[in-house]
Amino acid sequence: MAQWRLDLRLVAGRLAQFIPGNKSEPAALWIVARAAGAVVAAFEVLLISALMQMGMAAPMAAYAHRAALLAVPSNAVVVPLTAVLTPMAMVAVLLGHVSRVLAWLPALLTTVLLHGITGSVRLLGGARASAARVATPTTVAVLAFGAAFALAMIVARRRRVLAGAGLAAMFAASAWIALVPRTPQVRAGLLEVTALDVGQGDSLLVVSPQGRTLLVDAGGLTGQPRSSFDLGEDVVSPYLWSRGMVRLDAVAITHAHADHMGGMRAVIANFHPRELWFSVQPQSPELAALLDEARRQAIELKEFREGARFDFGGAGVEVLAPPRDWTAGPRAQNNDTLVLKLIYGETAALLEGDAENVSSG
Fold it and tell me: Confidence band (pLDDT; 50, 70, 90) for 289?
């Protein structure tokens, strides 16, 4: 601390040479002291924010499946603004009981600060890396994180070398959970078709013999447009994360009914598939918006009709419907459904969505 004070006085002495007047030295000391205080305060905000993010890495990954990679710079903006906003808002409320005129200025400053906070969060939160989605961490990773956390706590007040080692272990464990993807839980040499319980709709996970992944539909709620429950986010995605999956090779939308494609937007945002399969495009604003979002994310769109055949990771895929001459109507209907037949060796699986018998309508 003594050396720190001497260094600041030395800087102030040099600065005083550029300040005119008899009080140049006290003014230089004031400027240097305030500047040093601001630097220390900024360092504290960044350090505490970084420690909090490292300490929350495992709970965030296990329960929210998120890694807040841009939380530190976001907090560096939000925390100082909040420190000013809170007392300013209290002053505005107190003065508001006396006079609206007196409360106008603090209320205006509170509004500006609030917009600054929300704007910075929106700016940084809009970045793709702001909250990367991560799979459920393995037991080994969680145990390693717990050990590093305990070590950092024990050696925090000891020698600098030990404290630094504890922080390094904490950082390494957090980076492992947030940045190192898990190995997906799949079985080589088998064709897997898993049905996910999404209620009325449909959602099927297909894993090819070579480990390629395809999600057919993602469920969705019907008749409850105002519900905040998202089957894609709250049911389908957690299952995929529990299997260690953070990327899908392809997703397929059988048809444009809400109980089949309602959860697909969240799946696309969370797993960034390389391809999106679909059949026909009725006059559905929801489907059009979903396809536009896929284009924005550079996902390859593939439209299939009856007769298409191709290989998908060692499994054969045959498209049985809709017919080549099928024309989409003004509204989505069951017979728009993309019907797929998966073949591997002597095993076949028919994925038919809601396709109906033509004669029965």
Answer: very high
Query: Please, how many CA atoms are within 13 Å of residue 210, restricted to the half-sphere of its CB?
Result: 8
Token pair of 172 as six digits: 């390494």
What range does the domain containing 109 cover? 2-139
Q: What is the domain-level CATH number for residue 308? A: 3.60.15.10
In the predicted structure, residue 128 carries a pLDDT above the cut 70: no
Strand order in the sheet with 275-278: 192-195, 204-207, 213-216, 250-252, 275-278, 300-303
φ and ψ at 220, to 5 degrees?
160, 155
Angstrom distance (rounded) from CA 349 to CA 156: 58
Tell me which residue has tokens 């809601």. Answer: 354
Opening angle at CA 253, ends 247 and 255, nearest 5: 170
Backbone region of residue 199 per phi and psi (left: phi > 0; alpha: psi in -120 to 50; beta: other values): left
In the chain, what is the straight-line distance between the N-terminal and C-terminal CA atoms, in Å? Answer: 85
Give residue-wise pLDDT tens across range 158-188: 888 898 899 999 999 999 998 888 899 999 8
What is the four-CA torsion angle of 225, 296, 179, 184, rounded to 10 degrees?
A: 70
Q: Is the pLDDT of residue 316 over 90?
A: yes
Residue length of the chain = 361
Same domain, yes or no: 269 and 133: no
Q: Is residue 183 assigned to a domain?
A: no
What confidence tens digit (pLDDT) does each residue in 327-348 have?
877 888 888 899 999 999 999 9
β-pairing, 250-252 vs 192-195, is unpaired
d(CA 300, CA 312): 15
- The SS3 call for residue 195 is strand
CA distance 56 to 133: 14
75 and 44 in contact (C-beta within 8 Å)?
no
Residue found by looking up tokens 């961490």 in the block: 137
> Does residue 278 have a pLDDT over 80?
yes
With 0-12 CB in 10 A as exposed, 13-18 as middle and 19+ as buried, what is 80? middle
One domain, residues 238 and 122? no
